[in-house]
Amino acid sequence: MISMNILNELQDDELRAVIEQSQGLLKRRDEERKAKALIEARAVLAAAGLSLKDLGKSKPRGDKGPVYKGGHSYQHPVNKALVWNANGQKPNWLRELEEQGGKAVEIGTEAAEGSAVTPIKRTA
Of 37, 56, 75, which marks where a domain is finished? Predict the structure, then answer.
């Protein structure tokens, strides 16, 4: 290890050269560590019948549930008094409904199709 006394005796240009060489040495060591880690990782994966490409493949995600569009109004399919205008977080009644496998009914869409549901206007 270089002692502080030796470093203090160096001229500025010499000290900059030592710093530059040290940074180059650190970069080379870092690259060697990464290369060694990749070799070890490939060996472990090969033993399991996998490759690095297999790690990049994502599993298909499950259904995230219904998609609700902002600005539309939705209501509970059974309790018509429960309405959400799709602004902000989903209300608890809607979360519970989705957990049970249900989804809210868009107000206005079914009314246009001849359903008995009539649009409910909410005031602020």
Answer: 56
Q: In this structure, what token pair is assigned to residue 64?
A: 């995230």
60 vs 113, residue with greater confidence: 60
Domain hosting 102: range is 59-124
- Count the Cβ atoms, other than its own, within 10 Å of residue 35: 10
One domain, residues 108 and 121:
yes
The pTM (predicted TM-score) of the whole model is 0.43
In this predicted structure, the answer to whether residue 123 has a pLDDT above a threshold of 70 is: no
Task: Calculate the alpha carbon distances from 99 to 58, 64, 94, 106 in Å.
Answer: 25, 11, 9, 18
Helix (H, G, I), strand (E, B) or coil at 27: helix
Tokens linked to 59 = 């599993």
User: Cα separations (Å) of 103 from 36, 72, 93, 122?
Assistant: 52, 14, 10, 20
Distance (Å, rounded) from C-alpha 57 to C-alpha 90?
A: 32
Residue 121, token pair as written in the block: 């206007």
The alpha carbon of 96 is separated from its chain's Cα centroid by a whole number of angstroms, namely 24
Question: Any alpha helices (H) in 1-124, and if so which ranges?
Answer: 4-9, 12-47, 52-56, 92-99, 109-112
